[in-house]
Amino acid sequence: MQFQVPQFIETEDKIVGPLTLTQFLYVAAGGGVCFILFFFLQTPLWIFFVLLIMPASVSLAFVKINGRSLPVVLLAALGYYWKPRFYIWQREEEAVPTMQLPKIGTGGSTRSLLDSLVDQLKTSKNPIPKREKAIAPAITDRVKSSKERFETLRKITGEAETARRVDYR
Question: Does position 144 have pLDDT exceeding 60, yes or no?
């Protein structure tokens, strides 16, 4: 079976001449208010209100800003000014389950063992086994004998890295 796929679904149908239903209702509401005010106000005051109401109703019906109709833009602006824009995230205090660390049988406390490891990482010039690599002497000899200039850089962890030096002269 074949089905026809609807196209142009974002365009509104023209109901009253070249006007859509919403455009017609905005213009008709503005004209109706002006017609009712004609019977209740004196002529100069009525003309003043007509000069305010009719451009407003016509602009609500026809003006588009960045492809959006004026009522949609006005409602978005009203929502922006009405709602608070200052958000503060406050963590909800929840009961955090605590975990007991197992005791390490080295005779000392866990804190002193961790402190000694941190001190070794910060101050040691020798690599820690199974964690850091030592600089192979064959690589440094090869680097020194080549014509290119290399420098050995030492990272914060103590690990050395060789980088090619480029002089821009």
Answer: no
CA dihedral 80, 81, 83, 86 (to 10 degrees): 90
Strand-strand pairing, 64-65 and 19-20 = unpaired
pTM: predicted TM-score of the whole model, two decimal places: 0.47
Sequence-ordered list of residues with C-beta below 8 angstroms from that of 103, at least 6 positions apart, any chain: 110
Q: Residue 48: which H helix or E strand, with range?
A: helix 43-62
SS (H, E, C) 52-115: HHHHHHHHHHHCEECCEEHHHHHHHHHHHHHCCCCCCCCCCCCCCCCCCCCCCCCCCCHHHHHH
Tokens matching residue 49: 């209100």
CA–centroid distance for 140 within its chain = 48
Quote the mean pLDDT of the chain: 79
Surface-to-core class of residue 129, CB atoms within 10 Å of its CB (0-12 exposed, 13-18 middle, 19+ buried): exposed
C-alpha distances out from residue 45 to 38, 40, 53, Å: 9, 10, 12
pLDDT digits (tens, 9 = 90+) for 51-78: 999 999 999 999 999 989 999 999 999 9
